[in-house]
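Re: heme C structure - here you go.
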Amino acid sequence: MRHAAVLVVWTWASACGDPAPRFSGPVVLGGRSVPAATLERGAKVYALRCASCHGPRGDGRGPSARTLAYPPADLTAGRYLRTTGGADRLPSDEELRARILRGIVDRGMPSFRYLPEDDLDAVVQFLKTLAPVWRQRPGPDAGTPSSPAGPK
Ligand code: HEC
C-alpha cells in the first residue's frame, strides 16, 4: 500500500515538475552551433504551444491532432514543403519564423503573432532538433551566428 502511494507521488512529480534539461551543450543544427540555453527555451515554448498538435516528439501525433481536419505536419520528417513554397530543401530561419508567425490557418494551425520574439527564435531552433536531417546537412543559415535567445 505504502509503495503504491510513493509511486503515485513520484509519477505525479515527474509529470508536473520542471523537466530535466535536455541539452547539456550546444548542438550543431544545419551547420550552425546553437547554444543549449536557446534550445532549452525553445523546448519549453514547443511543449506549451506546439506539442498538443505536433506531438512531444514532433511526429504529428499530439493529443489534439485527432480533432483537426488535416493532420499536423510530421516535424521529424525533415520536409518543409509548406514553408519553402513547395521546394524540397531545408528552410531558412526567416522562412520558418514567417511560417510560424502566420500559421496555416486554413489547415488548422493558428497564427503565433503574439509570441515574444525570443520565444519565436528559440522554437525555430528547437524544432530542428526534432528532425535528424538538421544534424546531417548544412542549411541555408550555416556559418552565421544563431539567435541569442537565452533561458526563460
Ligand atoms: C492546432 C494545431 C497546431 C498547433 C498548436 C501548431 N501546429 Fe504547426 N501545423 C499544424 C497543421 C495542421 C499543419 C499543416 C499540415 C499540412 O497541412 O501540411 C502545421 C504545419 C506546421 C509547419 C509546416 C511544415 C511544412 O510543411 O513546411 C511547421 C514548421 C509547424 N507547423 C510548426 C509549428 C510550431 C513551431 C508550432 C508551435 C509554435 C505549431 N506548429 C503549432 C497544426 C498545428
